[in-house]
Design goal:
The complex is a heterodimer of chains A (180) and B (281). In chain A, 76% of the residues lie in helices and 0% in strands. Chain A is mainly alpha-helical and 180 residues long. In chain B, helix 3 crosses helix 4. Classes of the chains: A mainly alpha (180), B alpha/beta (281).
Chain lengths: 180, 281
């Protein structure tokens, strides 16, 4: 699954030797993942950013000190560190009684941006009314597929086809919009 | 966790919708931390779902769409009815085509063959009748003895028997009523014959046997009071020994009659048989 070069082993070795380029590479490789994980768990952009910064401080420090016994385990090491930081943040938020307030915020809002809205609009425009209804029932109302199939008079296999086709179209539209 | 497993079990979507247990969740997290492709898919799916939810909340997708869908008129009634009608039409067309292209020509051929056969039969029959009549006519001229044309038939029994091998068959062919007379004694019942209104002649068939010497015969018909009604002279017998006497029907009315058959030697005549005949008109 490793697509990027240099490899995780090389990166770990380079950081231990004090090369800052390798530290940047490790950050670029895992920062989005750590941020995504923290955002989906904490539902706060600020907290997610804090988690990301704290996680990489700990990871880089450990790598410099040569605490990573197996360089191949770098992704797992970053994930474990991020989870620890997230847990600490949750405990801290409970102490600050901010959990209830955070829970009231819609979690999906963190993944909405103008490009997403525009892409969804174009996807919806290309769908038939019944296909649009399926997406709402499935992702918004979270009804079981068999119930949706019965209500819309569609076969269950047809639902999966609609979903994958809409997702594919969304991916294309979103990529195009982000590039522009 | 492998890619195929992630795709087949829709792990990405279930991760976002919190439908994985803790182990599966941790396993997938470990996977997408090391796999760029899965992390990209995860983010895309997250945005897509968030976008759909946002679209539903913002009214981009109408809530009316999620109401139960009634089957359209086409699907509920018209489509099956159309299918049935179409099938029935196809079957009917096939049957009509078979009748028109196969069965009807066959029947026409059969009809033509039967018509030809019937026409041939009628032609043959007519020829036979004409031939017999011609022969009868030829015989009538030299004999010329019949009463009101009766000799036409009685003058040629030999010829008729040669053709049909059945005495009197020419009479039957011409629809002349025939009475086969048997000799009567005492109070025996009379021979019967029914004459139709359109019967111009009737024939009496009397068997005398081939052994009799007489070649020519005389036939006399008397009514109940003993009056001579009709007389036929020089009637010949045929090879089978049958004398056929043809009388004009207009001289006879309903009632009992007595028919006398005489042999004609050259010098005198002798009574061969007497027959009772009852006529119904």
């Amino acid at each position: 699954m490793q697509k990027e070069t240099p490899s995780d082993t090389t990166l770990a070795d380079d950081i231990r030797r004090g090369e800052s380029v390798a530290e940047t590479a490790v950050y670029e490789k895992f920062a989005a993942r750590v941020y995504y994980l923290a955002l989906s768990e904490l539902r706060s952009r600020e907290d997610a950013e804090d988690v990301r910064v704290e996680t990489f401080l700990r990871v880089i420090k450990a790598l410099r000190n040569g605490q990573l016994r197996s360089p191949e385990a770098l992704p797992g090491f970053v994930l474990g560190t991020a989870k620890n930081v997230i847990r600490e943040r949750i405990r801290q938020r409970r102490k600050e009684e901010r959990i209830a307030q955070a829970d009231n915020e819609p979690g999906d809002a963190f993944f909405i941006d103008p490009c997403v809205k525009q892409a969804i609009k174009q996807v919806i425009r290309r769908l038939k009314p019944r296909e649009q209804a399926f997406l709402v029932m499935y992702f918004y109302q979270e009804l079981p597929p068999d119930q949706i199939a019965a209500r819309l008079n569609l076969k269950p296999e047809r639902l999966r086809l609609i979903k994958s086709r809409a997702l594919k179209h969304f991916r294309e539209m979103y990529s195009r919009l982000v590039k522009n | 966790m492998k890619h195929s497993q992630i795709e087949d079990q829709q792990i990405v979507e279930r991760y976002i919708r919190n439908q994985l247990n803790d182990d599966q969740r941790s396993e997938f997290q470990a996977h997408f931390f090391a796999c760029d492709e899965c992390f990209t898919n995860l983010q895309t799916m997250e945005r897509f779902i968030a976008g759909v939810r946002d679209g539903a909340e913002s009214g981009l997708i109408s809530a009316d769409l999620t109401k139960p869908v009634l089957l359209p008129f086409w699907n509920r009634w018209f489509k099956p009815a159309f299918a049935i009608t179409a099938i029935a039409t196809l079957v009917l067309t096939a049957v009509v085509a078979w009748l028109m292209l196969v069965r009807l020509p066959e029947l026409r051929n059969q009809l033509a063959l039967e018509r030809h056969a019937r026409e041939d039969f009628e032609i043959r029959k007519q020829r036979e009748i004409d031939e017999l009549n011609n022969r009868l006519t030829k015989r009538e001229v030299p004999n010329g003895q019949s009463e009101s044309g009766g000799a036409t038939l009685q003058s040629k029994p030999d010829e008729a028997s040669e053709v049909n091998h059945k005495p009197g068959s020419d009479l039957i062919a011409r629809n002349v009523p025939v009475a086969v007379l048997a000799s009567t004694r005492g109070g025996e019942d009379a021979n019967q014959i029914k004459l139709l209104p359109n019967s111009s002649h009737f024939a009496c068939w009397m068997e005398v046997g081939p052994g009799l010497n007489s070649e020519l015969f005389q036939v006399e018909a008397f009514n109940e009071s003993g009056t001579l009604i009709s007389l036929l002279r020089e009637v010949k017998k045929n090879r089978k020994g049958v004398v056929v006497a043809t009388f004009s029907a207009q001289n006879f009315s309903s009632g009992d009659y007595r028919i006398r058959l005489y042999g004609l030697p050259k010098s005198d005549r002798s009574l061969i048989g007497e027959y009772k005949l009852h006529i119904d008109k």
